[in-house]
UniProtKB/TrEMBL annotation:
Originating species: Winogradskyella marina
Signal sequence range: 1-18
Protein name: Tetratricopeptide repeat protein
SUPFAM superfamilies documented for this protein: TPR-like
Assigned keywords, A-Z: Signal
Length: 238
């Protein structure tokens, strides 16, 4: 009799738990919809976190990580989905890892995920990102391959955003790639390639005269050229 009573109580507890779990799920689904309607990103994050605890889902975790990313909460995004590369990762998952790691200045780790995105969908924008990071990590041959691909496939309507100014701005992707090629050319041989790199910066500015990063780079190269000329003149006097 005691055994039967315990069994009945256990079944009752499971039923109550299932009912409570279902009610909580309905509550947080409604809460999620309301927070989304109000544009409350933190509320959306809270709702999705509770829903994932109640009913774990890979797709929900990917979406939650993406929201963290869009809010600039890069560590939270990575803590949600991890940093490991997995063949079964969704495109969203890989993109979040790539961008979050890049924004945290973990360039070599970010590269691995950008390469995976590029393998799945080669395009000019990813080629630019890869080339930029490869220049930073001194994979200059790899950077040139990415730039060559992008130059061969870029179109006049493509734009790229830049953020080095207080006010972000867009420039022509052709100008951006020309600038990047100039940066690569200079990095390959800073002594021999200064003039060639300077020409590429001028070419980028011919496409877009308001391209601030190209202006800054041109000024830096011109300063180096002037300094070398002064040093050479001083050497000739001696």
């Amino acid at each position: 009799m005691k055994t039967i009573t315990i069994a009945i109580l256990m079944l009752f507890s499971v039923s109550v738990f299932a009912q409570t779990n279902t009610e909580l799920k309905k509550h947080f689904e409604a809460y999620y919809k309301q927070m989304k309607k109000q544009g409350d990103k933190q509320g959306v994050i809270n709702a999705m976190t509770h829903l994932d605890i109640l009913e774990p889902s890979v797709a929900r975790k990917d979406t939650l990580a993406y929201i963290y990313l869009s809010e600039g909460q890069y560590m939270q995004a990575l803590n949600t989905i991890g940093v490991e590369k997995n063949a079964t990762d969704s495109d969203m998952n890989v993109e979040v890892k790539a961008l979050a790691l890049k924004n945290l200045n973990q360039i070599e780790m970010a590269l691995e995920h950008f390469e995976e995105l590029y393998k799945r969908d080669p395009n000019v924008y990813l080629a630019y990102e890869l080339a930029d990071m490869k220049i930073q990590t001194k994979d200059l041959a790899g950077a040139r391959l990415n730039i060559d691909y992008a130059m061969a496939n870029v179109t006049d309507d493509m734009k790229r955003a830049f953020y080095e100014k207080q006010q972000p701005y867009e420039t022509s992707m052709k100008a951006a790639l020309t600038y990047l090629k100039g940066l690569l050319t200079f990095t390959e041989n800073k002594d021999a390639n200064l003039d060639a790199a300077l020409k590429l910066m001028n070419d980028a500015l011919a496409i877009d005269s308001n391209f601030n990063l190209a202006k800054i780079s041109r000024e830096a190269l011109e300063a180096q050229k002037a300094q070398r000329a002064q040093q050479a003149a001083a050497g000739n006097k001696n």
